[in-house]
Amino acid sequence: MKYLSIDSSSRRLLLLGVNEDKTMGVTLHNVGRHGTYLAPAVKDLLEYLQMSVKELDFIGCGIGPGSLTGLRVGISTVKGLAYPFDIPVISFCSLDLLAYNNYLSSAVVMRRGREGYYYWRKYRFEGYKPVPVEEPGFDSVDKLKSGILTKNEVLIFENEQEKEQFEGYDSLIALPPSPEIMKQIIVKAFEAGETIDVRELKPYYLQKSVAELNWERKHGKST
Amino acid sequence: MKYLSIDSSSRRLLLLGVNEDKTMGVTLHNVGRHGTYLAPAVKDLLEYLQMSVKELDFIGCGIGPGSLTGLRVGISTVKGLAYPFDIPVISFCSLDLLAYNNYLSSAVVMRRGREGYYYWRKYRFEGYKPVPVEEPGFDSVDKLKSGILTKNEVLIFENEQEKEQFEGYDSLIALPPSPEIMKQIIVKAFEAGETIDVRELKPYYLQKSVAELNWERKHGKST
């Protein structure tokens, strides 16, 4: 089987290519704008693995939640690759990449959105693997503390700063998400028959962009 | 700080480059012989990060235990890069890459050596991070079961097949080791002042090569 996968939902760009038993992963963290590096990195990866886009059985794509600009670049790139050859797509929640910490009983992955707000998703663990409990959410720190989070869940953050607002909760810093963790997620989804048509590919837009919020402030909510 | 790191102790080649806040990781699993891919991959990585070898503050190198041929390629490459500019080296035990599973109290990383033998290293966990308890060992399955392993340690294997010989033990498959886990290991060692001169760099040779064993069988043990 031959496939490619991209997650561009944070400042860490993850890229995976598989050609039968050969696997190549590339991680670019803070290296530059995703828009500058993603296309050349895909090209280099295909060359290392000696395969071409039209041979791909599917393309994986992280659809956030996370950086809106990053997601637009990643999803546009996947669309550009998949459309011409009508390659099926596997979309997955980018927070799942952070849930791979073994031996937890239940956990909540937390990713900072705009000031005072967090994306979150809850997981239980089966055979040391995380299984999402529900769709991801987007809520204020106050709301999270006053009802959504419970004290017997472990909070998983991406870095120390994000952890600070949740003192008193059992929490840890996620292992850095890697292309090979992405591989486990998309292969599981592919085996479960969860491919979609590339025309259906869209990001989780849980957070309105600052531009949208400003527009609503000035002009009232659109319907 | 600028640095590079390589682990070539298994069929998964790990490569890391850091240029100040920029990090790039490359994983090549089964892609081909390490001897063919390592040098060009290092060159590409340096280009992405816009840095040159002579600027490096140090070079990290996994010294096994693991594939003897793989280790020779990786260590030779690090020597080739470090010698001309006398760049300090951080060497680390490759089994540490497999120990990064959170929320364990104590664990033993297991890596298959020749038929019926395993490399192993024990870890305790501090603040969710593994700390090695002693130097790695190399022993037969029988000896491991009859004294070295205890039932309250979790065994960490690289794949399902290696696990089969240890039925009845609490065990799990390691998360795939990643360049960014290697980053955590070498940065910790660098901060602890554990650099060595490149002339001191050598692999863990816990296992005699098949060639050495055959020689001894024919000619008697050398002294």
UniProtKB/TrEMBL annotation, chains A, B:
<dbReference type="GO" id="GO:0002949">
    <property type="term" value="P:tRNA threonylcarbamoyladenosine modification"/>
</dbReference>
<dbReference type="InterPro" id="IPR000905">
    <property type="entry name" value="Gcp-like_dom"/>
</dbReference>
<dbReference type="Pfam" id="PF00814">
    <property type="entry name" value="TsaD"/>
</dbReference>
<dbReference type="InterPro" id="IPR043129">
    <property type="entry name" value="ATPase_NBD"/>
</dbReference>
<protein>
    <submittedName>
        <fullName>Peptidase M22 glycoprotease</fullName>
    </submittedName>
</protein>
<dbReference type="InterPro" id="IPR022496">
    <property type="entry name" value="T6A_TsaB"/>
</dbReference>
<feature type="domain" description="Gcp-like">
    <location>
        <begin position="33"/>
        <end position="145"/>
    </location>
</feature>
